[in-house]
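User:
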Amino acid sequence: MGHYTTVMGSLEKFERGHLSIIDDDPKHYCYSNVFEVASKSRPYGKIAVAKNLDYVIEAIRAEGTSEWFAANHDEFVVVMDGEVTISFVEPGDSVVSRTKDGTQRLSRPPNGKKMGRIHLKRGHQALLPKGAAYQFSAAGPSVMIQQTILGDLTQQKWAEICTH
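Assistant: Predicted structure:
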């Protein structure tokens, strides 16, 4: 049996990778590298890198402080590189639409009760609970992936990010 070494990429150092198709048409497949996508993205842009029915995995470059977000369903994030702090606040009178799927940008900072913070490092994940307002902050460039439902803030750039 062959010997394989798993190497974790980072924003500063990643390899593009390749597919080895055994018995199919390569046109049926595409892939992208979350670090490459994040390296070309603006901070807190939500670029879809995987999709299954209505659900998406988004690559996000975290740098500085984000706007406030919320969703009418649970979401989660995994930090792939760097460190990210998430602050949680009850939305108060900031409106979170009950009929929209996906992450929603709040029109103003939430004025509800502070719910706490989570500090994440590489490999850590956190739940973003339904209805909670959250804000990301990162002292330096970092990479996250976020699982959510396809929504208005999700950018689908398949032709730009996928390699066949």
